[in-house]
Amino acid sequence: MRFLLVVFGILSFGAAAQQYPAKPVRIVVGYPPGGSGDFTTRIIADELQKNLGGSVIVENKPGAGGNLASAEVARAPADGYTLLNAWHHSINLVLYKNPGYAHKDFIPITKIATGPTIVVVNNDLPVKSLTDLVAYAKANPSKLFVASAGFGSTPNISATLFSAAAGVPLTQVQFKGGGPAMQSVLAGDTHVAFSTAPTVMGMIRAGRLRALAVSMKKGSPSVPGIPGTEEAGVPNYESTFWFGLYAPAGTPRPIVMRIHEAAVKGLARPEVREKIAVQGMDATPNASPESFDAEIRAEGPVLERLLRESGAKVE
Phi first, then psi: what are they for 109, rounded to 5°? Predict the structure, then answer.
């Protein structure tokens, strides 16, 4: 009898995967429009819609550094109809006492894209290079205001790691996402940002913001013309980020694999890779959900150590 139940369960999951999606799929992202989280979500939503043959909806749910979105997906039915686009969960699990979820609440599906942050300043700030920024911060302690996209966000982590690496005080001002943060820098209400590339590339090209460096030692081919941190004079600073798809724990493997295959197929298309590259990132799909999970497990302890050593915390 048990054997028959197992066989029936396998056949049922297989049938469900064949019929999937029978209704709209929702991808939740913890940041508002205008930043890298929103950009990568809309890119992958378009590709899933084409390759799955059903409607895929993006839902922006900003707040608490992405915790609201992650907690909602962690509690969602494990049926493949609610997905999450997020970075590494170890970050908020270190920064927040009660984020509302744990690693075990999710199944990693695939990474979408990876990129560096870009250090940008308001054009009126008398700073032309990363070493100038360090000197200015030391000469004006606690008076250099950094626009950040919320505690636990990529800009928050990148700025905190820079402060520790360069030994300079920075006063971070938290916004609800990368878009609102950039508007603050443009207006001159804040002075500098450690921003994800999709948020600022257009403003850099238009000359509305001055780029000082990308947060990779050797620079990035996806962000040409902007020096890496070694060339820019702060060689011990590096900070990259990624976004990836997750499903609630318990989602049937056939459905997880259908989503994975649809995502990887979309991210392999040259025109999609070009769209991502134009935004200063690289498409970085995983060969399997297991390989993405292995990367997450390997990266977690490193991120946790860096965060604790840097003193990053939610105040």
Answer: -105, -60
